[in-house]
Amino acid sequence: MKALVKERAEPGLWLADVPEPAPGPGDVLIKVLRTGICGTDLHIRDYDGWAQQAVRTPIVLGHEFVGEVVDTGAGVTEITAGDLVSGEGHLVCGKCRNCLAGRRHLCRATVGLGVGRDGSFAEYVALPASNVWVHRVPVDLDVAAVFDPFGNAVHTALSFPVVGEDVLITGAGPIGLMAAAVARHAGARNVVVTDVSEQRLELAREVGVSLALNVGEATIADGQRQLGLREGFDVGMEMSGRPEALRDMLANMTHGGRIAMLGLPSEDFAVDWASIVTSMITIKGIYGREMFETWYAMSVLLEGGLDLGPVITGRYPYTDFEAAFADAASGTGGKVILDWTA
Fold it and tell me: 135 catalytic, yes or no?
């Protein structure tokens, strides 16, 4: 079968022929229909410092996908051939304290699909049935392909109550845009998204934010004044990993404000901890999705009319992966999809 492979310990990706996986006991074999390109995939392509530590070559990339079940291993009873499915990209041990307590998203032995084991940028992928989400109601294939990052957005956006609250989201990348759509759909009063890319801010306007603010031209405090906010934001969602973004967010939160932090900084940086203490700010780190409560929430949100269409801005056949990766790396668009049926 064809697959996108990190063949060598150097920058680049290769479209190669690899053996088709076989489902073992408890596994599901899936014919991949579409995949989404993630920032993690860009890091692996570039073979930066993180990728050099995290990845052992050769490996098939990819963890965002939708596909059709074609076979199941022994012991699989709730999933059948023909089911349309997406996959939870965090494979957990099932034995640690958190796994046994039902907190699988907190497993310390998590292995990432497409990072620690062969992934979904291929014509077929095998996955434990416990990591498979069956789409029981109709769903757009492009949206189903990005259920993994959509889950990051939902986990972040619903970490704190947002009904009637004023929400600040720093970073209008794909997950920030999806989080903005979720917060608005879930009943936030105002949703403000910041970035320095006008193209991405225009996407934020398409998903219905109250204010898309270019922080290269105006401050968050300016945005507050424009919206008539007197005491700051109630809920913050930090999606960029940028030190200045978190500092600006902290400076514009109300006392008792709550921040969900998904953006992953590339290095250590200082913040005003005295202000965090005296303003009684809560900061919660977010990594991945709650299995499978977040997935249930995703499906229900889509059933309720949540529209993620504006967030998906690039569609390519898998043979044009180089153009697709360049698009995803440009920092100006939303999610980029690879079609594996082309």
Answer: no
